[in-house]
Amino acid sequence: MADLTSALELQLSEIELLGSMFPGQGELVLDHPATLADVRQYVDGQTDAAPAARLEFTVNLKVQEPQQAQFSIQCSFPHDYPETLPDISIWTASITRQRQTQLNLELSQYLQSLPRGELCVNSALEWVQDNAARFLDQASPAKQTSPVDTPSRTFARYWIYSHHIQSKFKRRDLNEWAGKLGVTGFYLPGKPGIICVEGGKERCEEYWKWVRELNWKKISLRHHEETELADGQAVDSLRKFQGFGEKVFGAHNFHGRNFHMDLGEFYQFLKEHHCEAIYAILFGIEGKSTES
């Protein structure tokens, strides 16, 4: 496939350029070096099998002013990049969660303004270098009450539908944010992607706010349930899921670009947790179990 070969050639050239710009140990970190070898073999015509996994890497930038801080810029290339935008997110321990969310939002807006078909990671890195100081230099806001600190009188369960969930960075964030907010549930990676969170209403609202600020092709809150707690009733008494994590059901081509889950197994999972009615709301059809 000529278009795929051309796109992957450009991706390799960009990674080589970044390697020359960030030669220090730990500055440019490939997540899966074997994937790079697979892409090179395909581009060089040594194999007809298109690489299944994406090229993913992290660039660690050090900013000296107004204070020394490290910013990790995590990149994941869709196979058709640069015709489509890469997944790029920033992580740093030097600013608050709210500022980090704003930083990623502004970076996403900047990337959206760039012309399609052109390599853009170096432009993104320059943008981070130019704007990092603005976020580091802001005075720390007064401590505000967090949804985690506020006892809720309403239990909620949110069902979120995404065009897909593939980026490992998004998957990491989904897990970390659930832990920080104390919500339970799960997410279903692949195409489509499903996220379920449950807990106090305020915490679910905050989780949904954080999630929708990420760069998505399409995402929506398909359904939400709310139950007022009776006197003495605890949020935990209404949970249907323990903990929070990724659920995989008979995935086809799980390491590829558009892997799909076995939705029959997913329906069975929902049934086991007494949530099978949500299937028709999410997908518009009645669910069928794979069990005979």
UniProtKB/TrEMBL annotation:
InterPro entries recorded: Phi-like, Prp3_C, RWD_dom, RWDD2A-B_C, UBQ-conjugating_enzyme/RWD
SUPFAM superfamilies: UBC-like (SSF54495)
Organism domain of life: Eukaryota
CDD domains assigned: RWD_RWDD2, RWDD2_C
Residue span, RWD domain: 13-135
UniProt xrefs under PANTHER family: RWD DOMAIN CONTAINING PROTEIN 2 (PTHR15955), RWD DOMAIN-CONTAINING PROTEIN 2B-RELATED (PTHR15955:SF8)
Name of the protein described by the UniProt record: RWD domain-containing protein 2B-like
